[in-house]
Write a structure and sequence with these properties.
- The chain is of the alpha/beta class and 715 residues long.
- Helix content is 37%, strand content 10%.
- Strands 6-5-4-3-7-11-10-9-8 form a nine-stranded mixed sheet, with helices on both faces.
- The longest helix has 44 residues.
Amino acid sequence: LCMSLRLLSLLLALFIIVIEGTVANRVIDTHKNFIRNKSSSTMSTNGSKKRVSIQAPADAPTRSKAPPRRSMGPRQQSLPAFTPDNYSSDEDDKFFHDHEKNAAALTTTTKKKGDDDNEETTPGSGWTNGQVPPQFTPTMTLHPYTRSGRLMLYSHHRRWINFQSSWSRIGKGTTELDAVHKESSSGQSIMTGCLIDEAKTVRALVAQLCECFYKHGWATGTGGGVSIRVGGPSENRPYRIFVAPSGVQKEDMVGDDVFELDMERNVVAPPKTPMLRQSACTPLWYVVYKRVPSAMCVIHTHSMYAQLATLLDPTEKSDVIRITHLEMLKGVGNHSYDSVLEVPIIDNRPTEDLLAEQLDAAILKYPKCNAVLVRRHGIYAWGDSWEQAKAQCESFDYLFETAVKMKGMGLDSGVVPVSGTYRDEDVEMDDGGSNSPPAKRQKTEEGPAFNGSSATNNDADLECSDKTDVPIVPRDSKVLLLDIEGTTTSISFVKDVLFPYVLKNLESYVDKMTDEMKKSTLAELIADVEALDANHVVKQMNLQHTIIDIVKALMGSDVKATGLKSLQGKMWKSGYASGELVGHIYSDFLPMLDWCKANDVKVCIYSSGSIAAQKLLFKHTEKGDITEYFGGRHFDTTSGSKKEAASYQTIASALGVKPEEVVFVSDLEAEIYAARDAGMRAVVSVRPGNAPLSVETKKEFPIVRSLLQLCGNAN
């Protein structure tokens, strides 16, 4: 009986397994039939797909109806493998034309119940949430990865969403060979004339730009933003301004997040996404649009290099950063390779709207610059199109990165390079033409060297020195004694600017002298010649005893004589007064003076140039009159030779301090050693173009490449 029951149980189990298998097969067949029917329906809706279904000609003989074949699913619709034998550009065009018609047809099909969630008007819906429109079948999705797809994409389709067919940085009326470009140019409008279509395009473009800047690292942490202006009087309609929202992740922005405003900041069309607020930058964008009529796009980024550029002056008092002789200057508009770009800097505030007045003032003061830096914050940049604003923003960032890295190398981005760039060297300085020196020489960041020395290659000195114990004021000293040439001012200023000015204007200046002045001046110059050594080259010349001949001979031999310097000083005074001469100072000098003034550090000047010449230079600098910082504490060679230790002891005595209480800074080795022998703390100034230093000097003395390295806390 037990054996019979076990056998019966086994038979029953086998019966159940057979029944379940039959039911499962029927379910699978039903599902396959459903898929096959749906695929057939889609194929008929999509119309003729010439690559996958070829109909027989109307006059072809009728064949018996073949049994339906099992569908292989969407993969059956993919392109055949490419070979040289079956490729045809005509076939590519037909394929794309068919798919454009198919996509258009599918977008007009009636939606079924339950498809409401795919509406574009529903915030948050879209491809990123998995809702791929049905017309983007695997064939269409994979097509750009085929050769034909890539060919079509890069032949006709630009990557940026736009409402113009093209754009160029080169504006109308200019050529690609012009050194400076101010305006850009755009192609034809690709809008249909519908303002709704334009608004949708601009909104999407704002989102695309924000995503781009996020990838650059300029808009992380929801920072930064973009605004674009369209319309205006040229199109006989009001301006409309599209602005990014505040506090959203810029890499995930969509067009539905963007505000549309008028020129009074009234909301014309709010974003479809609820609970959004306008960007905090909006008040500043409007400052630019109202102050710069040509601006059609304003970009704000939190670029790391834009922020660091505002800190190149460690005192954080500079209101501008200067950059020159870099190729990418062409990309910021209104500037060429050898222009001096001045980017204004305004101080940051707790909220962005508080920056509006500062931004407005900076734009008025620096109208050539298409950007303003905000200290410890970022940059606002603009252009006459969104493309120009983007290109200029990228160019500014490149220049700021270069300036920051040059600073790390001990180089000043605002100083004209001594060599490595082309110059017209055949310009005659005394050709009797215009009284002004050549423009390139006059506007450079190079400056006065009263010894009239030429700039030389001292690249090796720009590297770090072994000696690092730089004295700090006011911690280590309350008295700072500075040389001028190669320290506060470029080494080649006298040779390239002041000396040529004297030679060029000498005849006209002498002609205007009274007879008495001519007589006294000539007597002083003759005394200068007689004081020279018997073997001096000037004494070997067959000189005519005239002012012009003696001055040219002495200057040609680089003689430093009392009578000559007196005449030069009078001529320079005339040049400064007329504005033809402007004294140069390095960009770090004025911030250093401010630091010393705030910390009760006395700044004194000791130069081979006369005291009168020193005061002239500092009274007529590009920063204005700065003579007040020195309190009349000027010394020249009347205190003794700069190469003798006794001279420095004399100066210390005149200042009422001990030599060891004074920090002396100069570029010349002989002066540094003499100051140290007198007991002063000597520091070597290394500037581009200064005379190269010996190995011993670099080992024995601390070196500074900026006078701000001397500034520090008193603790």
